[in-house]
Queue: 2 jobs
Job 1
Amino acid sequence: MNRRFSYFGKKLFQYTLVLFVAISINFGLPRLAPGDPLLYFFDESTIKELTGAQKQEVLDSVGLGGTLWEQYIQYLKGIFTWDFGTSIKYAQPVTEVIADKLLWTVTLILPALLLSAVIGVIIGAYSAWNRGRKRDIGFLTMMLTFQAVPGFWIGMLFIAIFAVQLGWFPTYGAVSIVQDGTTWGFIKDVAWHLVLPIATLSIATVGSNYLLTRSSMLESLGQDYMTMAEAKGVTKKTLIFNHGLRNALLPIYTQFTMSLGTLIGGSVVVETVFSYPGIGRLLYESVVARDFPMMQGVFLMITFGVIAANIFADLTYPLIDPRAKSSAVHKGGQ
Amino acid sequence: MKSMKKFFMLPVLAAGLVLGACSADEKETSDAEAVTDTASVENLTIGLSSDVGPLNIYTGNLDWLTDMVYDKLFSPSPYVDEPTPWLAESATQIDADTWEVVVRDGITWHDGEAFTAEDVKFTYEYYRDGPANRHTHHVSEVPQIDEISIGDDGRTVTFECGYACPSLQTITFADLPILPEHIWSNVENPRKYTDLAIGTGPFKLTEYVADQHYILEANNDYFMGAPTVGKITLPIIADSTAMFNALKSGQIDASSKTVPAELVSTFKGDAQFKLAEATNLSIVQFGLNYQKAPFDNEKFRQAMSLAVDRQAIVDTILLGQGRAGDKGYPHPDSPWTNPELSTPYNTAEAIALFEELGYKDTDGDGFREDINGEALQLSIKVSSGEPIYVRAAELMVEQYKAVGINMFVEALDPTTFAAHNSEKNFDTYVSLIGPHGVADPDQFIMSHRSGYLWAKEMPYAKMDELVTKWMAASTIEERKTISFDMQTLYNEQPTAIALYYPEEVYAYNAEKFDGYVESLGYGVINKFSFLPEATQQAVSATQPVIVE
């Protein structure tokens, strides 16, 4: 019990330390880049016309008039009260803007991650089982191509074919501006807008899932327990999925849980190509506007997301691999 | 094997479809015959490339969009020589420093409140004394409006300036949007104000979703005639490719973003689209840091201007879509610009000037050293978000190499570029300056005080003398003559060299709506495109040139 408590205590300390360092970096990083929020309010020639007092007045009006230290204290206080300040660009509380965009991002990224993982794992396992055959080489070539092709190009290609030429899907946005007013109509409309972005994101990420599964699976296939299972006469399907893939899943599971952390960050490229109002675009726009409170808020969300995904991976990994559980407790007790 | 063939055929098929999508010839045009009236329409969708907030003048700003909701005392803009009375019924210059404006009666704000002379007084005082915005210096410095009062009739507003202000009617009154006092007098912090804009303009802002869209609905009681479009939806499409794909797919009817030269051909020959050419009164400029060597020397700046082949930039980089900047600065199409200005390309003269100044190639590496014999290498900073400017800068590096000046390109992210620019942290830069900077004569004076074209703390005897004369001039004609002399002086030793004048091309679906007119400096997407023909004529809006 003590060993386990000590293990979790140590982990808690580690994460708290990481969180504090990340929080401080989140504050410092936006301010290290050249430029400040004045550039959002005024163009380059007008900004030169401002007096020092006028510049100070602008910074005061958006809550950035204090010293760096005062701003840092304010920022730390805000974290504990869940008040990240007011966005300079949107003139709304940072939390409200993030909450609005986060919903769209999760709607886009989560299905794409799952789709990419499921397709990558299934084809990866199938490919490994057929190692060296034409179908394996075919899939390998296809996946390496997907891996090499930039996501934005896939998106542009999809738009040109399926939106412009065939007219099946919209070219931009998350939802039509004019709605029929029904919930079902809204859901259908959102899904219609999601098809191309999800397909783009899935294709852009499926390659890495496939390659990881294939290599992990190849390692599993060479193990003695596979020979043993085959000798026992289990079916091909059971052999691939129950004996091979189950053991090969460990690194894939780690990759998947870690990618959940990046989910919150959205995808700048796909969100830009499809004019999708998610966190990725929000972050980009905030960086361009030097919207310090918004940048801090989004960075913080991403930090929380990555740390939460790490904790989730740490906690759940022993469940799928009992060896990790005993090893962790053992190390924790040392 | 069969499946493998299919697999490898996929990219070929995809490429074929993309080419097909880009081919204008394949578009069906049968719908065109069914459409008869394109001068008015109930709904129109125009793509917008950036979010400028809830049209609050104190945060984001896009002049043509602001103009859809707000009005000014005179219209259309300071970029024409004789603006038309708009919210003002008339304006009279009483003496060199005083103007009387009679405001129109019977106009209401979008929320139903009456528009009054008090709103005008409040607005000008708010711009002058309130939080700074881009209009502040047009009230507090050039010109300097000291007193504003309202006559006993309640409709006459008297403006008294600190020094002669003959351009008040033509420039200032045509530039500053009028705000409703009953709303803005209660706004505590305009930079955090998020309520939808209330104006007197032809369209009411009825919906704004950040980063997604705006909806403007016609103000059918508009005092200059009911708009010809009932509702304008403006989806925000930041990506340029996505914008033009949306236009081709029929999701939007026009793009407020102009068509890049390389995309013009994809719309040509397609019956449903028209390409309208317009002059946005902007200049792509090559700025020099006149506060540091070697650009603090007027002859060096002159040599730099002589050494740049502007026509080559237009031909090579813009594919001919623009005019070489050989008429200098400000924009030659502005009625306030001296038509005699000339900034020729002459490398022999440039070389002679560099030699005269002592910039010689002493080590034989093909590049000139500075007057102390030290290596001279100068950077051209440019925003990475503007690939055309990056390419122009790269071509200029070659052009300057031909006269022995060693330059290199530094592409920076847009905000870092803007920060370096505003902090004067550059040798040279390439950027765009819009009509407010290069077609508004008052701004030319302001730019020589602000640090943009010159800094007021730096001596500049010849220009200062002209500015003193300009400030004393009591008529607009006198001002114009003196301005012409200033422009001549400026272009002899420019601190921002005009590289080219972009010719903007707008693409729109003419089968949906074809009532677009050009308002100088605003292109074809401007409020007059959506107003009755008589109103368009009143502000001298012109039919755009259609690219065939």
Job 2
Amino acid sequence: MRGALLIGMLLATAALADESQVKLKEGEGRQLVEANCSMCHSLDYIPMNSVFLDRKGWEGSVNKMIKVMGAPIRTEDVPGLVDYLAQHYGK
Amino acid sequence: MTFDRRRFLLAGASGVAYAAARPLGSLAADPVLGPAQLPSGALESALLDALPGKVPLIKKSWRPPNFETPVSYFNEAFTPNNAFFVRYHLANIPDVAPQDWRLSVGGDAADKPYELTLGQLRSEFTPVEVSALCICSGNRRGLSDPHVPGVQWGYGAMGNARWKGVRLKDVLARAGIRKEAVEVVANGADAAVLDKTPDFVKSIPAWKAMDDNTLLAYEMNGEALPHWNGYPVRLVVPGWTATYWMKHLTSIAALSQPFKGFWMSAAYRIPKGKFPVVDRFTTQETDANTPITEMVVSSLITNLTEGQRFAPYQSIEVRGVAWDGGYGIAAVDVSHDGGHSWRPAELLADLGRFSWRQWRYVVPAARAGGYTIVAKATNRIGASQTFELNFNPAGYHNNVVQRVNIQVG
């Protein structure tokens, strides 16, 4: 019982913590996206919002995070973020 | 986030075992994850998993947690607490200890600000129970054409429950709410990761706050609210979309001026005049847009899945639910030939005007072939569902009639 409970707890914890199982597509800028976007939310927001945004759409999303949600994303990082998102999750 | 042992135990072995037994990747084509019209990436990144205290639900995002209820649960009149959808904007969600919980009641349009403990809330006001559908403004956003950004909900960001609590108007009366109050603002314990992110705070018009049906609820379907649905107390605003149903409530304030905050002035807004809604939120209107208010009339087929096969020459039972913003459902018409001919469905028990209404329809014994089932609800003030999407940039109020294709033979 105790053993089963322990395993159960580990599974439950794993399931919860399991935003780490979200694997973004390989490509230049992936780490930049992971570092900036995962400050506030799990990375599954990105594939969930694909594939339908064009480059302008992703640029709008990144800028909303900065201007509205207050994300501390450096201005010089924005093009790299948008490039990655548009190339791998854009239409 | 922290999770205590009790919450884990509530999760039950079944949920965990289910999640563990179905490895990632094996669910990609599972229709339970949502209709095929969802964005491809939304379908691919969805999976079934159980939050503590919940059965496996459709995971849309982990953090903040957004989990959708599989449609099969909607065959029940009331949605089980452990299957009720979960929706958060902000990722810091505290585990509120009941003995520490306080509700502050005040605002510049209240004479006598005060605080309540959970025990006081439960014992010092008249308890009331209301059956009401709680539906995310963006339910079915994922079906928007063209797609719009946001949580890509399918059909399951909703649930029907019996909410027990006390009237907001009674709590406001004790604070000496004055006639100058135009809005009542609600805040909850959940918070953003960053200081600069706008806190999720919502207001409702004073007239809606003083409505007999607007509650501070501490029970849902006869049990304490689940953590993920706002424990220990949430606002219940029957007829209006769930954005106003503040979870983990911490403060209520009566204001003499319209509340200015991102989640009111910029989010949850619909183009003015675009939808046939009656309730207006005039203190928050601009020339172009207005806050979302009441739910639009809609319905859902709950017992059929796309492409389901049936034996020929046997009648087929179709079941579903229909709802609106609180006027009541007058009729549900169903077609089994793709909308050419219609017959009324049988309406089941009336559970109150804010609850959804279950309905039933029997497709007569039919020969082999493809059949398209369509359901369309009409409410008591003559509003009905649309056949074409009433597009808006945030994907709200999608009440396009649903079409389910089945195969006989």
